[in-house]
Write a structure and sequence with these properties.
- The complex is a heterodimer of chains A (359) and B (289).
- Chain A is of the alpha+beta class and 359 residues long.
- Chain A is built from 9 helices and 20 strands.
- In chain A, the strands form 4 sheets. A 6-stranded mixed sheet of chain A has the order 6-7-8-3-9-10, with helices on both faces. Chain A has a 5-stranded mixed barrel with strand order 11-12-13-20-14.
- The longest helix of chain A has 18 residues.
- Chain A is elongated, with a radius of gyration of 24 Å.
- With 289 residues, chain B is mostly helical.
- The radius of gyration of chain B is 25 Å and the shape is flat.
- Classes of the chains: A alpha+beta (359), B mainly alpha (289).
Chain lengths: 359, 289
């Protein structure tokens, strides 16, 4: 199955587990997704959202309870993992502890029946790609976490798989190494020109790496979109919360005109953009802390007044807690250094005030 | 200002917990062993090595080494060889795993004498097995599985298998299954996963298991007497030692035979552990180091 492909199609992929009291629950529910050749897809969500289950189903390490997986016109969900030929990078690396770095990387080639003479140059090339030349005779236990991670990546890509699957590959690395390795993964992906499916709970990783992000919750897909759209136009309140819209306030709907919705709370009156159909007069607005601007006077629309409760200096800007007269707390990230107790006016543009149905 | 002095390495009082075990070893193993060793060099008559010379020149003594090895080595190989695939199958949780494990382990609770009694009834010329085979006309000849080599071998397998099984099962379940899954994504079918992942990681454990099972089988005594023919093909080395001690009342000679017995075990164990030192013996998990 080493052949190239044009698209990988997941059609209603479902995986159920036996839960408490013999009730089956769906860890992954009806995932439908088409991945083009060369695409970098991130499956994003909190733990337990089904993203790893999805990856294991694609790899063949888990049987499907429903649906099918197609590589172009070949159905592959009935094949065992060794027949699918996808490269996989595991969260804890899963390096073979008794094999040297070179033998770990060459394992997949050896399983494909290549002779040692053919394996060696490809292993050398893979080592070069992950910048580990000179470490080939060490055992995994003698390497640092970051080096082990790169061996795991080399081992997965040396077989030149049509699809590379990565299960939170950076979660065991420290912050600095994580950013370096992230860039490395993106570079390797570009260099190989194959597809990658990348599971993570870290939205920064997903935003920086992926061509498209699949946001999941409780086994159900919430949104499939480009990083910019997921970031700026979350499909629902859950995605918004996950993407850093820290300010979620429940309000009453005053009037709707087209996409624009005017809402009001006890001491808030804002106009925002509707993201989902609304009903029953109540709504939730979602706003990012960094999209507020701090003003000194109450003038202008979409302005909220409040008292500064706490200021955290963050270097480039400050994180300011603003409490309105009725006690609604807003998190504002802005320049300027008001003192606690000051009265401030915060402004947010209409198109950055997102309106969702209330929960 | 002076830096605070580093505290001297104090005597770790936890070490005192070793004392009872050390005393136990000293009194009940090392002292009797040295006593027996010394005794073996003080024969009833002749020089210091007379017992050993006697053993290796007497026709009903020195062949007992081979007789015992001929029983112990095959029994050990069968036990380890059978336990490995069964334990491998049992490594994943399944509804019948607990039942199967229980049934496989039951013989461990039975003494060798009880096993021997049962086998005499079951495998004997008029035992259940013979009657069953004859009733269904599967085998008409006479069945001789007791009072010979086969009786002792079967009993060694019955009593030794659970040990080997439990030991290997614990080694196998210690291996992170994610390694096999990683191998499968790299194209290894189940057979290759076993050969390239499980087997190399298990090898040191298998060597250890082999040693323990061998030592146990080599000191076979009750079943060799009850199920074998202790005058002939199953006259194992422990029978020779028993006869010297309790029929000829020659404790010195009996000690010498016991020392030879220990030495043969030591040679085999040293050889296996020597081979083990050539294998990978690091951690068998996949985590970061």
């Amino acid at each position: 199955m080493d052949h190239d492909f044009n698209e990988l199609r997941l059609d209603g992929v479902t995986r159920r587990f036996a839960g408490a009291g013999g009730l089956a629950f769906a860890a992954l529910n009806e995932l439908t997704l088409t991945i083009q050749r060369g695409e970098f897809i991130a499956l994003l969500g909190p733990s337990g959202c089904g993203k790893s289950t999805a990856l294991n189903c694609i790899a063949g390490l888990m049987q499907l309870s429903g649906g099918s997986i197609w590589l172009d016109s070949t159905r592959i969900d009935t094949l065992p993992p060794e027949k699918r030929g996808f490269g996989m990078v595991f969260q804890n690396y899963a390096l073979f502890p008794h094999m040297t770095v070179a033998r770990n990387i060459g394992f997949g080639l050896k399983m494909r029946g290549l002779s040692d003479a053919n394996v060696a140059p490809r292993v050398a090339h893979a080592l070069q790609l992950v910048q580990l030349t000179g470490q080939e005779h060490k055992l995994p236990g003698q390497l640092s976490g970051g080096q082990q991670q790169r061996v795991a990546i080399a081992r997965a890509i040396v077989i030149e798989p049509p699809l590379v699957l990565m299960d939170e590959p950076l979660s065991n690395l420290d912050a600095k190494l994580r950013i370096e390795t992230r860039a490395e993964i993106r570079r390797i992906h570009k260099e190989l020109g194959r597809s990658t499916i990348y599971v993570t709970h870290d939205q920064d990783e997903a935003l920086s790496l992926a061509d498209r992000i699949v946001v999941m919750k409780d086994g159900v897909v919430q949104q499939i979109a480009a990083p910019h759209d997921v970031y700026a136009q979350p499909a629902n309140l859950h995605v918004a919360r996950f993407m850093g819209y820290r300010n979620v306030v429940e309000v009453a709907i005053e009037r709707e005109s087209g996409e624009r919705v005017t809402v009001s709370g006890p001491d808030i009156c804002l106009t925002g953009v509707r993201k989902q159909p609304l009903a029953d007069g109540r709504a939730c607005i979602a706003m990012r802390p960094e999209e507020f601007t701090l003003g000194a006077d109450p003038g202008g629309s979409n302005t909220i007044s409040g008292r500064v409760d706490n200021v955290e200096y963050c270097g480039r800007d400050s994180l300011i807690d603003v409490v309105t007269a009725s006690g609604t707390r807003l998190y504002v990230r802005a320049n300027g250094a008001p003192q606690a107790g000051d009265t401030v006016y915060v402004h947010i543009p209409v198109e950055r005030t997102l309106v969702y149905p209330h929960e | 200002m002076t830096a605070p002095e580093a505290p001297r390495a104090a005597f770790d009082r936890v070490l005192l917990l070793v004392v009872p075990a050390a005393a136990f070893m000293l009194l009940l193993f090392i002292y009797p062993f040295l006593y027996g060793l010394a005794l073996s060099f003080n024969p009833k008559e002749g020089g210091a090595l007379a017992n050993y010379a006697h053993f290796f020149t007497t026709d009903n003594l020195w062949p007992t080494i081979w007789t015992t090895l001929r029983l112990a080595l095959p029994a050990t190989l069968i036990n380890v060889g059978l336990a490995l695939p069964i334990a491998f199958k049992m490594r994943v949780k399944s509804p019948y795993q607990r039942w199967a494990t229980t049934i496989l382990v039951i013989p461990i609770t039975l003494g060798t004498v009880l096993i021997a009694e049962g086998m005499l009834t079951y495998f004997g010329p008029k035992g259940w097995l013979a009657q069953f085979l004859q009733f269904f006309h599967l085998y008409e000849g006479s069945i001789r599985l007791t009072h010979n080599y086969w009786g002792v071998l079967i009993s060694l397998v019955i009593s030794g298998f659970p040990f080997a099984f439990l030991l290997i099962l614990s080694y196998i379940t210690g291996i992170d299954p994610v390694l096999a899954r990683a191998a499968s994504t790299l194209g290894a079918d189940p057979r290759s996963q076993f050969r390239h992942i499980y087997l190399p990681l298990l090898a040191p454990g298998l060597a250890m298991c082999f040693c323990l099972a061998f030592v146990q089988a080599f000191s076979v005594f009750p079943s060799a007497v009850l199920l074998g023919s202790p005058a002939g093909p199953t006259r194992v080395i422990s029978i020779a030692a028993y006869e010297a001690a309790f029929e000829q009342y020659d404790y010195s000679m009996a000690s010498a035979i016991a020392m030879i017995m220990g030495f043969v075990q030591l040679v085999i164990v040293a050889a296996v552990l020597g081979a083990r030192s050539l294998m990978y013996r690091g951690p068998v998990s996949a985590g970061k180091g």
